[in-house]
Design goal:
Layout: H1 3-20, H2 22-34, H3 45-55, H4 59-70, E1 78-83, H5 89-100, E2 107-114, H6 118-130, E3 134-139, H7 148-156, E4 163-166, H8 177-187, E5 191-201, E6 207-211, H9 218-221, E7 231-234, H10 237-240, H11 252-262, E8 267-278
Parallel strand pairs: 1-2, 1-4, 2-3, 5-8
Antiparallel strand pairs: 4-7, 5-6, 5-7
Length: about 280
């Protein structure tokens, strides 16, 4: 290991200690020693596939996870929110299936659908007839950049969950994504925000371009949005901090994250669930 790498590790350790305490430092060292973070972005796609096989739950693990999810001491409802426009029909089926495949089942999915798109509305109504946890909200306007946050806020105003995540059409969540969020809350009950890593799917469905988020760093947030991937917020933040700012488009997610960061007492943690996004 080169000196600059050691220096970077020391800086990261100090930052974690200052913002999350000694326990978080120990947890991160354990992860490093177990090799769960030894993939480099410069490695080949084949290396990344090997990394995924080594670190992610297999079918048997996911079945055990479903059983474990039913026995959690704390099992809050999680609200997923999606805003659709007229171009999203080819992508929504995969997103729907990835939510249906979640090992943690105490969720609801609110989807804002353009009322004037009869084909998309009909398709979503068909899905909602199959899944009672899917709630549709019809909109009279297109989900353009200027109206997206308004439509998103409309859905957020009627969520029933204790936590919420924003899911875009085309996103494919890892089956353990919701479980990973709720599992972290079992021992860290004061956490208000949890964020994750992400990767992408190429045209052949191969997982590529992983983005491993660093540990929480308020300083780094000023130059890049660490919370732009799958991020779970406590719903009560909508009351204390407010909803998404319509005038912040297209950077509404970053603006909201900075407001959350500036609110005293908010706890933020990273989770290691990788959620692929179709590209």
């Amino acid at each position: 290991m080169h000196f600059h790498q050691v220096e970077a590790l020391v800086r990261a350790g100090v930052d974690i200690f200052q913002h999350r305490g000694p326990r978080a430092v120990v947890q991160r060292v354990n992860l490093w020693l177990r090799g769960t973070r030894r993939y480099s972005a410069s490695d080949s796609p084949a290396t990344y596939r090997t990394f995924c096989r080594r670190t992610e739950p297999n079918g048997q693990d996911l079945r055990r996870q479903r059983v474990a999810a039913s026995r959690l001491a704390i099992h809050p409802r999680l609200s997923a929110v999606t805003v659709l426009d007229t171009h999203n029909l080819p992508w929504i089926t995969e997103t729907f299936q990835s939510i249906m495949d979640q090992t943690y089942g105490h969720w609801e999915w609110l989807v804002v659908v353009p009322k004037f798109d009869s084909e998309l509305c009909s398709f979503m109504q068909q899905l909602s007839s199959q899944e009672p946890r899917l709630r549709l909200i019809e909109s009279e306007v297109e989900a353009a950049q200027s109206s997206y946050t308004m439509l998103l806020n409309r859905a957020l105003q009627v969520i029933h969950g204790k936590l919420f995540v924003v899911v875009e059409a085309g996103d494919m969540l890892a089956p353990s994504a919701f479980f990973s969020i709720v599992e972290r809350l079992q021992n860290d009950t004061d956490i208000d925000v949890l964020y994750s890593d992400t990767d992408h799917l190429d045209a052949d469905g191969t997982r590529v371009m992983p983005v491993f988020r660093p540990d929480w760093s308020p300083g780094l947030m000023l130059s890049t949005n660490l919370l732009e991937c799958l991020t779970a917020y406590r719903a009560e933040l909508l009351t204390t901090i407010g909803f998404m700012a319509p005038d912040a488009a297209p950077y509404w997610a970053w603006e909201y994250a900075l407001r959350v960061m500036g609110f005293s007492g908010v706890g933020i943690l990273e989770i290691a669930a990788v959620s692929p996004i179709a590209v």
